[in-house]
Design goal:
112 residues, alpha/beta, Hypothetical Protein Mth938, Chain: A, 3 helices, 25% helix, 35% strand, globular
């Protein structure tokens, strides 16, 4: 099971590996680099849906400026996936607790 250790402005540490860029986290434990941006797009939502998560968590950055596009939200809702949105520092405990009992994907913005 993948675990987020911590998050600070500009980085996130997952399973003791620090990433200095935005990331995707998949239920399988795989971590991928996300294209930088303040909008979580439909294509990005589709990418995390490939592992059939029960929940998708978005880390909206340290100031909460990033957000789901309307079409990304519609796609996740259409698939019946629970959506949790929070500032990136606030997703650490949520992600870790939920991933113990559910398949969880995350799309994480690590700056603003």
């Amino acid at each position: 099971m993948v675990k987020i250790n911590s998050s600070t402005y500009g980085s996130i540490t997952i399973d003791n590996v620090t990433y200095n860029h935005d990331v995707y986290i998949f239920p399988s434990g795989r971590v991928g680099e996300r294209e930088y941006g303040h909008t979580f797009t439909k294509e990005q939502a589709d990418r995390v849906l490939k592992e059939n998560p029960d929940v998708v968590i978005t880390g909206k950055g340290t100031s909460g400026l990033a957000s789901l596009s309307n079409d990304a939200r519609a796609l996740l809702e259409e698939k019946g996936v629970e959506i949790i949105e929070a500032d990136t520092s606030d997703i650490v405990d949520k992600f870790n607790k939920l991933s113990e009992i559910k398949a969880v994907s995350a799309i994480v913005h690590v700056t603003c």
